[in-house]
Amino acid sequence: MAKVVVDVPTMQTNQPYDYAIPAPLADNVVPGVRVVVGFGKGDREVMGVVVDTTDQQDFDGKLKPIMRVLDDHPILDKELLALSRWMADDTFAFWITCLQAMLPSALHADTKWLANGAKTVVNRGRVATEDFIVPLLKHDEYLTLVDQQRTNAKRRITLLQALAQWSTDGAEPRLLSVAGPDSFDRTTVKAGQSQGWLRIEPREFYRRPYANLDAQARTHALTPTAQQQRALDALLPAIDGHKDQTFLLEGVTGSGKTEVYLQAIAATLAQGRNALMLIPEIALTPQMVRNVKGRFGADVAVLHSALSDGERFDEWRRIERGEARVVVGARSAAFAPLTNIGLFIMDEEHETSYKQDDSPRYHARDVLQWRGAYHHAPVLLGSATPSLESRARAAKGVYTHLLMPERANQKPLPPVQIVDMRAAQLDSVSGDFSNELLNALQERLDRGEQSVLMLNRRGFSSFVMCRECGYVAKCPNCDISLTLHMDSHTLRCHYCGHEEPVPTVCPSCGSKRIRYYGTGTEKVEQSLHKLLPNARVLRMDVDTTRRKGGHAKILKAFGQHEADILLGTQMIAKGLDFPDVTLVGVINADTALGLPDFRASERTFQLLTQVSGRAGRADKAGAVVVQTYNPDHYAIQLAQHHDYEHFFVTEMGIRHQSGYPPYYFTFKLTVSHPEDRQAAKAIYHLADELKHSLSDQAVMLGPTRGAIARLKRRYYYQIVIKYKNEPQLHATLERLLTETQVGSRNGFQVAFDREPLSFV
Ligand code: ADP
Ligand code: ZN
Ligand code: ZN
């Protein structure tokens, strides 16, 4: 008998179903393989994953049998099966959704694909093959044949000579289509085949992303600086001693966190164990992949969403087969089928991309910690600006705190100049640039140095601000910025539901220069061309990087000095390391502050610190110019002084006072329905149930309309629960999830989000 989690996501099916194992399939039905089973009335064929098997027989013949087995070996091992169950419980997601989230999309069976007659062992269908040449004759026989050819049959002779060579050295078959001296034209090879000289054999091969990086010179370990050595001295005993300890490596930008990661990985490999490293978005940080590849070469596998499905599948199989010892990847690489793991690393641990905003709403940090406990291996979190949650855990001693307060090259962090845009002289073209920033850019141009310019597009047009005094409309009850709702032309609070009309005159200073805030990169690029006609500008944003490899191309061009200014959105704030960048300009530091989000200050501080860290990383000193309408805001002031510690203390005080994380745990429930009234009714019903079931320990915010009240023809409502200790929470939510699933047939959708990144 097999326990099968079927691909029918409803709460009733969150437990596995029992199926009988027909005798002919007895050897193939093992935990971790995908199967096809009949489900429900009419025995609809659905995909399922076997999570357990028992010897128990189906004596009374009541169980439905497994119809087909889709894999010739388990695609999820015992660890990952257990992890999927834990994740389903922890995130209130369907078990099958969790299982699928762990697999590369090439292995997601959909119903269409099943209907198209999927056969046993479908894996093979997704594998790339290439034609290989296999010699069939002996060395001497080939030489004889060479002599028999007419002298002008050059191609045949070349082929025969090659075959003679290959037949002696017992080498692997040769790829037919390879370029260079080993390449033969197909006609000649086909002729050889019909002569019986060779066989053409399709063989599996790996689509290798970054294969060209393999050829790069191997880099050697650097001699650690004193602060790197201190971090390593703390880490290595945990690696050697198989301790599932979590470390927070807080190191300023340029402090050399990468070298610590690499040496820790090297130590892990020396122990005979493997290492898994997560980075936020690989496309944005190609340098990290290059660093890891440079150190560990072909042992490295890379997993991320910018790869084609085929490439990702192939990298995944290399890991699964034990052919890779180091895995580098974005969020979903947390599920890499790596075994025998001795170290987990998460670079830039504060990044929001580590949390999936779709079901299953997991945070990769939690997944790494679960796996760390499973493997008895340490988890190393690194950042220049740790999330408040992690930093608070370090303060409590839950995490071991490692500090690297200085840059590896002993250079100071760049000075940050704050430009008060309310008082500044602005350019006449667009009004986006202050004289200070323009002059700084011009200086770099004159000296032949490079600049990075960031335009913060977050919260584009989603709030209103006075350009005269910097006033941003805030909720009277919550001290949170109000969100602009264009459809109804109102400002609303997403925390308490407060609503007011959009002002036409600034309530603070009476000015009429009230704006929906937001500037596009394209527009800024155009004004740059007018303001600095000699500057060569490269633009990096969603538009210019849509195509595969778009990021890499732009970054490469910038690295080769094909431009003087790299203009981009937040995506340029991450780990770029260009030695000739001596100026970082931030066009608008405020947009994140205007967001109706209790993490707005944290995000602003992180972003400014990260982007400032791009300046002056090598010999030339760097500088940063930040334009803002809120020069007195503590997030901006403290970012100016690179003062994370002070920011942490200040922000924790505010979170404590307002009762926000990390002082409280939070949970967000969202309900949507095509009809507004139905959605509203459902959320108020949920609110009633929660009030009934939860103790007065838990605080409920809402119900309120969703940030986007209507999306894709559905109306959204939400509730946020804050709690410190609420023993009833899990059982209550579980029950509500089951109940609401019954309603899902009537067009309801319910989303449960543990520790949402924001309340909006
Ligand atoms: P972070 O990730 O902490 O911002 P990086 O790892 O990018 O910093 O390191 C910043 C720079 O310092 C890089 O150019 C790196 O090569 C250099 N570096 C790091 N460690 C050392 C070392 N031990 N000796 C010499 N240079 C180092
Ligand atoms: Zn409010
Ligand atoms: Zn004003």
Describe this structure in words.
The protein is of the alpha/beta class and 760 residues long. It folds into five domains: 2-122, GIY-YIG endonuclease (3-Layer(aba) Sandwich); 129-204, no CATH class; 213-404, Rossmann fold (3-Layer(aba) Sandwich), CATH 3.40.50.300; 416-461 and 518-655, P-loop containing nucleotide triphosphate hydrolases (Rossmann fold); 665-754, Alpha-Beta Plaits (2-Layer Sandwich). 32% of the residues lie in helices and 21% in strands. A seven-stranded parallel β-sheet has the order 11-12-10-13-14-9-15, with helices on both faces. Strands 16-26-25-17-24-23 form a six-stranded parallel β-sheet, sandwiched between helices. The structure holds adenosine-5'-diphosphate and zinc ion (2 copies). Adenosine-5'-diphosphate binds at residues 222-225, 228, 251, 253-259, 408-409, 577. Its cofactor is Zn(2+). This is Replication restart protein PriA.
